[in-house]
Amino acid sequence: MAVVFSDDEVAAALDGSTAVAAMREALLAAYDGRLVAPPRATAPLRDGRLVMTAGQLADEWYGFRSYDTFGHPDGEQVVVLHDARTGRIRAVAVGEEIGSRRTGALGGAAVDALARPDAGTLGVLGAGRQAWTQVWATAAVRPLREVTVHSRTPAGREAFAARVRAELGVPAWPVADPRAAVRDRDVVVLATTSRTPVLSAADLAPGTHLNAVGFKQVGRSEFGPDLLDRADVLATDSPAQALAYDPPMLAAEPRHAGRLRHLGAVLAGATPGRTGPEQVTVFCSVGLAGTEVALLDRLARATLPRA
Amino acid sequence: MAVVFSDDEVAAALDGSTAVAAMREALLAAYDGRLVAPPRATAPLRDGRLVMTAGQLADEWYGFRSYDTFGHPDGEQVVVLHDARTGRIRAVAVGEEIGSRRTGALGGAAVDALARPDAGTLGVLGAGRQAWTQVWATAAVRPLREVTVHSRTPAGREAFAARVRAELGVPAWPVADPRAAVRDRDVVVLATTSRTPVLSAADLAPGTHLNAVGFKQVGRSEFGPDLLDRADVLATDSPAQALAYDPPMLAAEPRHAGRLRHLGAVLAGATPGRTGPEQVTVFCSVGLAGTEVALLDRLARATLPRA
Q1: Which residue in A47, A186, B240, B287 could disulfide with A119, CB within 3.0 to 4.6 Å?
Q2: What is the pLDDT of residues B150-180, one digit of tens each?
Q3: Which residues pair with residue B56 across a beta bridge?
Q4: All domains of chain B in start order, with CATH
């Protein structure tokens, strides 16, 4: 019988280093073609859609995540992991954690590849689940000295900072002004639900690495378009998915698309990443398909012997 | 946390009457538009595809079944049931039982609607999982006096007959000749994996009802095309799905499509079913999408209080 993971079980069993290592492997596999990730498949229902994002790693596993667009605040997803040799289901995860942990861990892999080796300060805009997993994963790849966080409500940013101190053991402070929260930070995480810019190029110090997790499309973006012009290095976890957004992704517009790098290629050493301490590097997170299944595979292997 | 059902748990918890009642409701809901069942969504992987068949019942539930086309003999599926009010996942089934029980129960609903009221003998071609659930569901809608079964191997048909006697308490006999197995039977179930005819119109007595579960397409069909010409009543659980097959379904060819009735319409009294004891009635089973979720909903409600 397949093992089933709840959100609490995922959160308890998964550490940042393991998750980032799994995502690094998945990015390399996507770059060299072993990880197959087709476009999402959609089934229209009444007032919403069910969506399947699938993936297969060579002869190891295949599976999918399903989610829907009904917009229920407590809606749940599933991730299903099949053994590619037998078709049997090895594991199922019910909830949200696998999805947000893998997005966080992709961000951690980006920080590790693109931020300065000595990066130690982190500024965060946003205090939700996505912001949290970005910090969780960043703490696994850089020894953080300080986290500053801004979100719209004082209670939200205070709780977030307290959680960083408690769970990650890193000094953390809520900041009322978004610009102050990211000023002179080595790493910046943008993980808001804003459709209008909360940050622009002028807010970033030379040498900063930024993970852009929220909206980043033409007409709805949490950062100003000048941010991409400012970036010396622009990378994504899936150029194919970045090119398929509607409305188009800012980083996929003609003047950027040619320089948008595959993070897997950077990890493989096939494309350069940061080449100097003053460069600004930006990671446009799109959520490489198949990586939820890759993370569930890692979790299942850590939790029980392979069938 | 969602409740998770294994195949053994589904088999133990689900009786034929309950399953047929659930499918009857689903057929009526599909006919009156409350059950939404969009075309299947497909994600291509290496050497196979993942497929999602989804459904939504008004404001009650939505969900899907996933399966793949890799052809693993022991491959497993999932069925996922969401509460339509909250988006939360109420139940997940892992394995094959929900899928084959719902196909059986759709067949049981067809037998109940179309076979003679006094039908008591059943002939079966095929001895696999699909043949079994057809007999299981038919026994829930007609008091069976005798089951005769033919399949390619003596061991297979003997084991099947023994299971009918043991689990359903109905006299049952293996028969070496397929024609003899269906001769003068009130109900016939065709549930083989054959791509060439194993039965033709001449093999059926007047008054027979037949459930066609296996291949029924142009160029690959377990029955001869004259069978449909012989049918006085031709019905299916989803005319829309019947029309979407590739290669085309025999019952969807121009000379039949106009008289292919929606089983839900028959159940609703909007279209006549059998109108005389000598008529031959044929049910072309296509597996109405969303019905796996409907059956899981019924199972979950029977097993635990609604969230």
Answers
A1: A186
A2: 999 999 999 999 999 999 999 999 999 999 9
A3: B36, B62
A4: 3-99+290-303 (3.30.1780.10), 102-284 (3.40.50.720)
